[in-house]
Amino acid sequence: MDATALKQWIAAAGRFALPARCLVCGDPGPAGRELCHGCRASLVVNDIGCARCAIPLPSPVAACGTCQRRPPPWSALWVPFVYTSPLDGLEARFKFAGSLAAGRVLSTCWGESGEPVAVPELLVPVPLHTRRLRERGYNQALELAKPLARRFGVRLAHDLLRRVRATEAQTDLDATLRRRNVRGAFAVQRMPPATHVAVVDDVMTTGSTLAECTRVLLAAGVKRVDVWALARTPRPGG
Ligand SMILES: [Zn+2]
Ligand SMILES: [Zn+2]
Questions:
Q1: CATH label, 45-232, candidates 3.10.450, 1.20.1640, 3.40.960, 3.40.50
Q2: What is the Å distance from ligand 1's center to 79 Cα?
Q3: Nearest ligand to residue 28 Cα
């Protein structure tokens, strides 16, 4: 058993042995849930912003300046939360500390947050490069997508898209460099078995990864691509 599998096994065993505690504040969770009511209520809902890219703004707009200059390739998008405290802490535990429990909490909150404008035929999580997948032990986008697929009765295609090129971490890149960094990074593995799909990711920053996945799917013959992401980063300094 490797270190990741062992950590996951211990976490799974712990869930049965111990009462659920809130992963944010440590208080007992209601009915076995790992997020208390107070911390659940403090997740920031992303309901005011650009209708095209979901960037949080002081008042809603049909298309922000960025989207007017460069319209995103997707049809609709669903990004229910703002990437800020306490969600960012849960996401960090999920993505970088091997906490699948934090992933379950985030996915549950996402599923309960509302509904997408349209339910697609297929969910396609943004793939990780094989090397990153091996390091982390799981793809965070796929783990978030699984409960959503069950909730909305939608098929899930975890292997339709493949990351054919390892990309630099996007964290320190601006929007232009991010677009360049992901260009040609994804490929479809086979004929997409649906005409309406939604690409699923955890955090949407500039949207360059989601836009690239959307373009690849459209080029492969998908008629409509929507984008679902858990949370949107606010504009720097905004
Ligand atoms: Zn709490
Ligand atoms: Zn926009």
A1: 3.40.50
A2: 23
A3: 1
Interior CA angle at 233 toward 181 and 51, to 5°? 95
- Low-confidence stretches of the chain (pLDDT beneath 50): none
CA atoms within 13 A on the CB side of 106: 33
Model confidence pLDDT, tens digit, residues 28-53: 888 878 999 999 999 999 999 999 99
Q: What spacing in Å lies between the alpha carbon of 100 and ligand 1's midpoint?
A: 17
Average per-residue pLDDT for the chain:
91
Measured in Å, residue 102 CA sits from the centre of ligand 1 at: 12
Residue 227 Cα to ligand 1 middle (Å) = 29
pLDDT tens-place string over residues 146-156? 999 999 999 99
Give the ligand at the shortest distance from the Cα of 27. 1
Q: What pLDDT does 64 receive?
A: 95
Q: What is the pLDDT of residue 16?
A: 57
What are the structural domain ranges in the chain?
45-232
| CA 65 – ligand 2 centroid, Å | 7
